[in-house]
Fold this protein.
Amino acid sequence: SDGPASGAGIGEGDVITSIAGRAVTSPEDLGRILDGLRPGEQVEVELVGPNGAVRTIDVTLGTRPLPTELP
C-alpha cells in the first residue's frame, strides 16, 4: 500500500524488531508502541528482511486507520 511503512522502504517479508528503541516481539507489542507515538513523529525502525539482513530506517508516522478502514 502507499502508507508510511512502504514509503520508508518496509516491504513484504520484512519483520519489525524494534521501534524507537523498544523491542517488538508480537503484533500486540507493535500496537502498544504505536499507541504511545503521534502521527508526524519520526522514529527509528529496526527490521529483518526476508534474506536475514538487519537494517535500520527512519519512518515518519502517519495516522493509524480505524478498524473499519482496514482492508
